């Protein structure tokens, strides 16, 4: 059981690395000076590729920490 979870943990680590590298940078450049906070893109961010990548990152991050703590504290023997 522990070996299978360790392999799953490594796969989650690799997936998390790939998903984070696929995300775009957060700097808006000179566009941030105009003050357009409520743009169409921001309102519909969850439907975009970037929104899905952020959601996947959160899910993988939670799974990463849960498995890391579980494996460290030896919940899974």
Short synopsis of the structure:
With 77 residues, the protein is mainly α. The protein has three helices and no strands.
Protein described:
The protein has 77 residues and is mainly α. It has a domain at 6-14 and 45-77. Helix content is 64%, strand content 0%. It contains 3 helices and no strands. Helix 1 (2-22) packs antiparallel against helix 3 (49-72). The longest helix has 24 residues, at 49-72. The mean pLDDT is 80.
List the helices and strands and how they pair.
Elements: H1 2-22, H2 40-43, H3 49-72
Helix pairs in contact: 1-3
**What value does the average pLDDT take?**
80
Tally of extended strands?
0
- What proportion of the residues is helical, as a percent range? 55-70%
Elements, N to C (H/E)? HHH
Q: Total helix count?
A: 3
Provide the low-confidence segments as ranges. none
C-alpha Rg, in Å? 17 Å
Share of residues in strands: under 5%
Separation, N- and C-terminal Cα atoms? 7 Å
Largest sheet: none
**Backbone shape:** elongated
Helices and strands: which structural class? Answer: mainly alpha
Keywords:
77 residues, mainly alpha, 64% helix, 0% strand, elongated
